[in-house]
Hints:
single chain; mainly alpha; two-stranded antiparallel sheet; 2 strands
Amino acid sequence: MRNILNFLVTFLVFWVGNQYFxxxxxxxxxxxxxxxSLLMFIxxxxxxxxxxxxxxxxxxxxxCLTTPALIIASIVLTPIKLWLLDKYLNGFEIHGFWTYxxxxxxxxxxxxxxKERHD
Length: 119
């Protein structure tokens, strides 16, 4: 459920950016908007799986080396994902360095990982 919510939040952030801040982020059509959100979701999901695997490997001793690297990579990963979308997805454009910074902050805040309660 959390993953679906993160996908919808990413979709909403891109849509709001396109509608209200179209001088900084421009998306040509709804299809491109869905593809961009889906690609961000898939990359984030793969990163989350790598993080879980890294934490599980702490008991073996290997995770102590990989977990800090993955945490640092998560800070850098969102702007890289945005840049890759900008570069390779036709119809998705981000203009300016500060747009990357603001989108990274907004996506990091609103797609935060929340622990699920198992009662």
